[in-house]
Design goal:
Blueprint: H1 10-14, H2 22-46, H3 74-85, H4 88-98, H5 100-104, H6 106-110, E1 112-118, E2 121-126, H7 129-137, H8 139-150, E3 157-161
Parallel strand pairs: 2-3
Antiparallel strand pairs: 1-2
Length: 185
C-alpha cells in the first residue's frame, strides 16, 4: 500500500493508477510530448506548404545574419533615401557647386567658379579673360572630369564667361535717356 503524502492518501497524489515519484514525472512528460506532436501535425496540415519534411519554423529577426533593425551607416541610409525620393539628380547638381575644387581640380577651381546650372548647361565664370580662354580650350576634358565625379548627363554643356565688367549704367554722372546725339554721327 502506498504511503500517504502531505496531500492525503496515495490515490490522490499518484493519480488513478497509483503512480508516484519519478514514474509520475515520466508520465506527465510523455503526455506533454504527445500533445506537442499532435499540435505540430495539425499545424503542418494547415500550413500552405502541406506536410513537407518536418516542422517549419517561421524566420523572425532572431538568428545569425544582418537584420533591418541593426544600426546602419549614415551614408547607406542617405543613399536609400535619395533613391526612394528621386533626389539623385539634385544631389549630383549640388555636388558640382559644393565640391567644385574636387570636381575640376585645385588650379581650375582657384581661377573659376560655377555660377548656375540649368537644364544640363553649366555657366562658369573665370577670374580673367585669359582663364576664360583657357577654360574654353579645356571644355571637353572638364566635361569628362565632371561626368566622372558626379555622373553622366548632369552637365552636358559648358558656358564659360570672363569676369563681369563693371556696369556704368548707374551712378552720379549718368545721363538719363538716349544721351547727347552729337557724338559719332
Amino acid at each position: 500500500m502506498p504511503e500517504a503524502g502531505p496531500a492525503g492518501d496515495g490515490a490522490e497524489a499518484g493519480g488513478s493508477d497509483g503512480v508516484s515519484g519519478p514514474q509520475l514525472a515520466r508520465a506527465v512528460l510523455d503526455a506533454a510530448r504527445a500533445r506537442r506532436e499532435s499540435t505540430a501535425k495539425t499545424r503542418r496540415r494547415a500550413a500552405p506548404g502541406g506536410a513537407g519534411g518536418g516542422e517549419r519554423r517561421l524566420r523572425g529577426y532572431s538568428g545569425p545574419g544582418p537584420d533591418p533593425r541593426d544600426p546602419q551607416p549614415l551614408g547607406a541610409v542617405l543613399n536609400r533615401l535619395m533613391k526612394a525620393r528621386g533626389w539623385q539628380q539634385p544631389a549630383a547638381e549640388a555636388t558640382v557647386f559644393g565640391a567644385w575644387e574636387r570636381v575640376v581640380g585645385p588650379e581650375v577651381a582657384q581661377n573659376s567658379r560655377p555660377v548656375k546650372l540649368e537644364n544640363g548647361e553649366l555657366t562658369v565664370e573665370a577670374r580673367s579673360t585669359a582663364w576664360a580662354t583657357q577654360l574654353r580650350l579645356l571644355a571637353g576634358s572638364l566635361l569628362k572630369q565632371i561626368a566622372r565625379e558626379v555622373g553622366h548627363n548632369v552637365v552636358r554643356k559648358l558656358h564659360i564667361h570672363g569676369p563681369a565688367a563693371p556696369s556704368w549704367s548707374r551712378g552720379p554722372r549718368r545721363v538719363r535717356g538716349r544721351g547727347p546725339r552729337d557724338t559719332y554721327g
